[in-house]
């Protein structure tokens, strides 16, 4: 089942609104059109409880099926799907790249806030506070990249270069595209 943000969720994500926890807000940012199972798997399985809470509180809603065949969830109906549809529903190792509409500084900032909280808040509160301040003051793509790279250097020292590379790839997917990237 795919989940969508409700108007209540959009109000929560608007500047100045802070009623949910950082993890709830970051999950909410990524929720638009994502499968429920994918969101539940976040935070080492802790996402299931967050998704349930967000559904119960009206921040998320299931996507309405677009065709009558989509309402059937029985395994017998699965082989009737077209090869393209079956391939699209298969989980992949690589997360799908968000559309341009989902790319934003706010989304990238929330993702990096979450990384900072998980990796540094308990180990090094001063460093976590430093990155929080730097992320808050990053107002454009370049400054967000600068802060992100500094954060990734610390992640590489703490959790290894593979973890830092995974975070770097996801950050690149969340940031708005460069304005000069258009073909000349």
Protein model, in words:
This protein is mainly alpha-helical. Helices cover 54% and strands 5% of the residues. The chain has a three-stranded antiparallel sheet. Helix 2 packs across helix 4 (47-56), helix 6 (105-120) packs parallel to helix 8 (141-159) and helix 6 (105-120) runs antiparallel to helix 9. The longest helix has 19 residues, at 141-159. The chain is globular and about 45 Å long. The chain starts with a strand and ends in a 10-residue tail after the last helix. The model is unreliable at 68-95 (pLDDT under 50).
From the helix content, strand content and strand pairing, which structural class follows?
Answer: mainly alpha
Through-space gap between termini:
41 Å
Record the strand order, biggest sheet. 2-1-3
Binned, the helix content reads: 40-55%
Shape: globular
Radius of gyration: 18 Å
The main β sheet shows up as:
3 strands, antiparallel
Strand content: under 5%
**Helix count, DSSP H or I runs of 4 or more residues:** 9
Work out the number of β strands. Answer: 3
Which key features would you list for this structure?
single chain, 184 residues, mainly alpha, 3-stranded antiparallel sheet, 9 helices, 3 strands, 54% helix, globular
Question: Could you outline the blueprint of secondary structure elements for this entry?
Answer:
Elements (H helix, E strand, L loop, with lengths): L1 E4 L1 H7 L8 H9 L3 E2 H5 L6 H10 L3 E3 L20 H7 L15 H16 L4 H13 L3 H19 L1 H14 L10
Antiparallel strand pairs: 1-2, 1-3
């Amino acid at each position: 089942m795919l989940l969508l943000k409700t108007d209540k969720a959009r109000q929560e994500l608007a500047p100045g609104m802070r009623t949910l926890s950082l993890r709830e807000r970051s999950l909410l940012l990524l929720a638009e059109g994502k499968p429920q199972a994918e969101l539940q798997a976040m935070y080492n399985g802790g996402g299931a409880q967050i998704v349930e809470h967000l559904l119960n509180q009206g921040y998320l809603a299931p996507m309405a099926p677009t065709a009558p065949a989509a309402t059937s969830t029985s395994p017998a109906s699965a082989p009737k799907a077209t090869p393209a549809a079956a391939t699209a529903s298969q989980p992949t190792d690589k997360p799908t790249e968000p559309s341009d509409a989902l790319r934003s500084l706010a989304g990238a900032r929330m993702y990096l806030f979450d990384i900072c909280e998980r990796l540094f808040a308990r180990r090094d509160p001063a460093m976590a506070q430093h990155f929080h301040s730097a992320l808050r003051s990053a107002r454009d793509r370049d400054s967000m990249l600068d802060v992100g790279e500094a954060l990734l250097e610390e992640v590489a020292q703490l959790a290894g270069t593979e973890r830092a590379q995974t975070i770097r790839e996801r950050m690149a997917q969340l940031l708005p595209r460069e304005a000069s990237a258009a073909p000349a």
